[in-house]
Specification:
Keywords (chains A, B): Hydrolase, Multifunctional enzyme, NADP, One-carbon metabolism, Oxidoreductase, Photorespiration
Radius of gyration of chain A: 20 Å
Strand content of chain A: 15-25%
Pathway (chains A, B): One-carbon metabolism; tetrahydrofolate interconversion
Catalytic activity (chains A, B): (6R)-5,10-methylene-5,6,7,8-tetrahydrofolate + NADP(+) = (6R)-5,10-methenyltetrahydrofolate + NADPH
CATH superfamily of one domain in chain A: NAD(P)-binding Rossmann-like Domain
Family (chains A, B): Belongs to the tetrahydrofolate dehydrogenase/cyclohydrolase family.
Number of strands of chain A: 11
Order of helices and strands of chain A: HEHEHEHEHHHEHEHEEEEHEH
Largest interface: A-B, 35 and 35 residues
Helix content of chain A: 40-55%
Function (chains A, B): Catalyzes the oxidation of 5,10-methylenetetrahydrofolate to 5,10-methenyltetrahydrofolate and then the hydrolysis of 5,10-methenyltetrahydrofolate to 10-formyltetrahydrofolate.
CATH class of one domain in chain A: Alpha Beta
Oligomer: homodimer
Shape of chain A: globular
Largest sheet of chain A: 6 strands, parallel
């Protein structure tokens, strides 16, 4: 019966190709604004924002992400430091690295690249990041303040903040709209659902215990796919005209690519782009904007630290 | 068309009277368990749990609630202290009252009765409640840990905890079910939606910006009404067989009642009880269980403080 309903809706909808939301272009625009602010700060007070990254182990994905983040910092004139620790390091070593960056006045943002090796207590480590430098926004106080009305977190997590930015810059109304977030990780799904609610969307979170994810997703005006499952979201999961943000970055083997693999999203792009009104590609969608938001959080933190407006 | 759909669903459903979820009986059962635990604690280590209440002003509702909470403490053998401050007191006076209770080793739980007068910064005051004594669970760290996966808040807010307790004790499966929470207050709607998600429900929060709240609510297997609007949820808002928890306690004038008013819920009980499979009455539903959860949180806190198991 659901299929009937869907089919009849399709009859009144002219299939077309979705607008591609160009995350790279949007990220460049944002980064260009950040770059001039950093220059203005340097000219005015002689300081620039500083970001510190703690990376444990040699995970290929983590290395790629960290390289992108540090490259973006350099481009924007943001100073960066990195502390790399071996895969078998102790919790104390990570906490010591944190302490050093806490005490370093030239550092305004600290991020611990996730995931951490199993033997480290991720919760304890993230709880130890100084609130004022928690540019990833993963400290439970920042998360609690994101969830609660009338409170303001010091930092919004970068991916959710990037998703909202993509929606706003694409002219998508959020308030009053039905949104479905697929996946409920602490770093994407959860804070994205909280942030969409702050923007007055009616949000449902779909997860592994959801019996009919396609049916619930099909009701949404805005779909954020962050399950980490390649091609999970098919064209039939989408309401015609929905706006789709694909947070997934799943490597699949492809010998024709430089590193022997390419990235695909959680959304079956071919199918979805024929049903959605707008969609982010992978790569080149949410990813670059997430990095831009990290720079923005670091800039905002430095402005706060130097009382620079 | 929506109405058509609803009507056709009704045709296949035999209307019946919903099971009344007896919150008073459930609360008594829980409180009786707490009472014996308190007795065991006293016999074993000579101490009992202690709850402190800070009440600002003379709001009639607040007075009623506080009276109920203190009465329940007495019944269970939990010691209680109350600090009453005038309506025009300063923030410092409230913070001082908090400090006294923080330092008092006989106090294991502190609650600041809400709402506070407008001139006081509620956020700042709730943020100042010592985490270990935050039996209302309103501190943003407790809220953040409630929201995040793999984290455990020290205390679950009493009303949401009571709602889950009511569902479980009524044999209602939560995992995989669609739940709608109507209202998104920091003290009920928000934490209830987070807690239902923790129990693997698929949760939507309906609020003032929702254009079609009745349509969204009608999809839910579990409805938690916490909007503070009398009789907001009509029978036509409910899916036949839904389970309805009514958190609303709205006073309406009624000269035939002892205090000149009686309490009604957010749900139109007459209509809803003909559509739902189970429903909580107002009064006698969520309210008593909320008070029982406060006692339970205070007991748990005391056990933690005395390392008593």
């Amino acid at each position: 019966m659901v299929h009937h309903h869907f089919a009849s809706t399709l009859l009144t909808y002219t299939p077309q190709t979705a607008t591609v939301i160009d995350g790279r272009a949007i990220a460049e625009e944002i980064t260009s604004g950040i770059t001039s602010e950093v220059r203005r700060m340097k000219n005015s007070i002689g300081n620039v924002p500083g970001l510190a990254v703690i990376m444990v182990g040699q995970g290929r994905d983590s290395q790629t992400y960290v390289r992108k983040k540090l490259g973006a910092c350099e481009e924007a004139g943001i100073q960066s430091k990195i502390s790399t620790l071996p895969d078998n390091c102790t919790e104390d070593q990570v906490l010591n690295a944190l302490s050093c960056f806490h005490e370093d006045p030239s550092i305004h943002g600290i991020l611990v690249q996730l995931p951490l090796p199993q033997h480290l207590d991720e919760g304890k480590i993230l709880n130890s990041v100084q609130l004022e430098k928690d540019v990833d926004g993963f400290h439970p106080i920042n998360m609690g303040n994101l969830a609660m009305w009338g409170r303001e977190p010091l930092f919004l997590p970068c991916t959710p903040k990037g998703c909202i930015e993509l929606l706003i810059r694409s002219g998508v109304e959020i308030s009053g709209k039905k949104a479905v977030v697929i996946g409920r990780s602490n770093i994407v799904g959860l804070p994205t659902s909280l942030l969409l609610q702050r923007h007055h969307a009616i949000v449902s979170v779909v997860h592994a215990f959801t019996r009919n994810p396609e049916q619930i997703t099909r009701e949404a005006d805005i779909v954020v796919a962050a399950a980490g499952v390649p091609n999970l979201v098919r064209g039939s999961w989408l309401k015609p005209g929905a706006v789709v943000l694909d947070v997934g970055t799943n490597p699949v083997k492809d010998p024709s690519c430089e590193y022997g693999h390419r990235l695909i999203g959680d959304v079956c792009y071919e199918e979805a782009s024929r049903v959605a009104s707008a969609i982010t590609p992978v790569p080149g969608g949410v990813g670059p904007v997430t990095v831009a938001m990290l720079l923005l959080n670091t800039l905002e933190s430095a402005k706060r630290a130097y009382n620079f407006t």
